[in-house]
Amino acid sequence: MSLKIKATVSRLTTNFLRRLGMSELEPPESLPYLNFGRRLTFQSIPVDLYKDHLVRYISDRDGENTYMKCLLLRVEHYKCSQTVKHEFLVLYFAHWNSSDTAVICADRSVEAAAAESSGLLTPSSSENVAQDLVTVIGGAMATDTTQYLRFKFKSFKRISSLSFSSDHPTALQVSILLDLVNKQDTNYHIFRAQCYWFCDVVCRSLERLFQGVEELHGPDTRGHLGLIPVVRTSEGDVDNVCKGYPIALQKAMEQVNQLQIQRAATRAQIWEEGGASAQLKINEQQRQIVERDRQLEEIRAEQQRQNAERDHQIMEIRAEQQRQTAERDRQIEEIREQERAEQQRQLQEMRAEIEWMRAQFAALKDTQ
């Protein structure tokens, strides 16, 4: 049975249970960096660290890397409506034993301070290190995803979608590919390796490696700032990613296999030391994991608070700049209006003086 048929059967079963007044017993199991839960949360992490986390993850339940079971359903390419027309990707992953979906957002940006000092639309941006981030979005319902995207990107539109008929990449494979794209150029170049380039190379590499099918949802404005094309086709970068992918995948799988062997050996050793002692060690490990997750959650919450505060300050600065610009424009317009009135007054005086001179000339002519 294909993945799409399984998902459809599961969704119909869920709807049938809801009509009977029944609901699913519990939310689906989530992963640290793929959130299949129903509560809206989000956290951002650089693509290289994201890949490392996914490679090193081994499930306590079955000793396997569960990210290898989560298949990529589709990739959606979006473009912001603001001045710089930022582009980003939204990727949807299927749960390994339910119909639920996890969502991540991937994009390339540059440090706000660096962009402000060099100018976002200047060639000097080539000196800045790019920020290629994966944002894990919790609550994969369409309304939850849209809520987060509007919070971060304000207004935007979907340009295209990339889907897969049979050869679906796994979450682990996608993380390896994102890391490879980042390594093609770790600096932000406004005329080459910017957000347009990042989205283009990621989508075209996925399309080539996994026989993806692209669908446009309107005019193809990818890589354009207004009507101006900013990024050219990056065949060389796509070639490099596709050539480097099998090597990177093999290296990652060797690391996964090694971790699985170590985890199995550790479990066997623990059970050999005695049931009671083994249970104590397991309990202690679980306690440490819970404590580590709690600390990570506190750190993430603090980071989100700081980011929200920074965004608020930026919005206040922008609002003040807009107010000052409006006041300056008003003053300029007022000066121009005064100048126009003064010119009109002088013109009227000149006309009156000419009329008086004409009258004097006529009177003098009559007397002669």
Describe this structure in words.
With 368 residues, the protein is an alpha+beta fold. The chain has helices spanning 3-19, 47-56, 112-118, 142-153, 171-184, 195-210, 235-272, 275-367; strands at 42-46, 72-80, 87-94, 101-110, 128-137, 156-164, 187-188, 212-216, 224-225, 228-229. Strand 2 (72-80) and strand 3 form a beta hairpin. Helix 5 (171-184) crosses helix 6 and helix 5 (171-184) packs across helix 7. The longest helix has 93 residues, at 275-367.
| Helix share, percent | 55-70%
Strand content: 15-25%
Mean pLDDT: 83
Rg, alpha carbons:
31 Å
Largest sheet: 8 strands, antiparallel
Give the helices and strands as they follow along the chain: HEHEEEHEHEHEHEEEHH
Uncertain residue ranges: 16-25, 113-126
Question: Would you count the extended β strands for me?
Answer: 10
Structural class, from secondary structure content? alpha+beta
Name the overall outline.
Answer: elongated
Number of helices: 8
